[in-house]
Amino acid sequence: MSGMQNGTTNGCKAVERKLNQFGDFEDVTNMSVNDWDYRWSLGQTKFHMPKVHPLLDEGHEVIGNEFVDSACRQFFEEHNIPYTSTPLTGIEGVLYQATDGTPIKLYRCDCFDLSSKLCGQFDCMWDRGGFVALPVKDRTRYARVMADLMKKDGRYLLDCFLVDNSVFGGTFNL
């Protein structure tokens, strides 16, 4: 199946449109929180991992950030991890936290509201889809937030992918 669509309608040439990574023609170059919530409601989460978390499996505490409430709830429910949800103080959002001793927390808030004051600083960070999900114009701002969250000698792994924008539209390229 081709990732492009064009043709004519009533003698007028149609505009060439590109399939996005979700398999439709909607413009996803500036997705909002509501757009991501919509994609979760459709089950369009190809980036969703079936395992709890590789670093958790190695005994590390895992702290995550997510825009979408239903994604946080789904994570804990899929893995049968009991949890609480508590409103965050000072910013709009919720802290989801395991109650069975599993060392995992999810901050459901705008990533630009995260700070070392809110959630501390980290020895290492694994960005698996956050950076590439943002519009290009917001990436420098995002990098500043991530730098604030890392300890001085911290390590940062940016896990991303390259797509062919001549076939697929969207902001998911670096």
TrEMBL record:
<keyword id="KW-0949">S-adenosyl-L-methionine</keyword>
<dbReference type="InterPro" id="IPR008854">
    <property type="entry name" value="TPMT"/>
</dbReference>
<dbReference type="Pfam" id="PF05724">
    <property type="entry name" value="TPMT"/>
</dbReference>
<keyword id="KW-0808">Transferase</keyword>
<dbReference type="InterPro" id="IPR029063">
    <property type="entry name" value="SAM-dependent_MTases_sf"/>
</dbReference>
<protein>
    <submittedName>
        <fullName>TPMT-like protein</fullName>
    </submittedName>
</protein>
<keyword id="KW-0489">Methyltransferase</keyword>
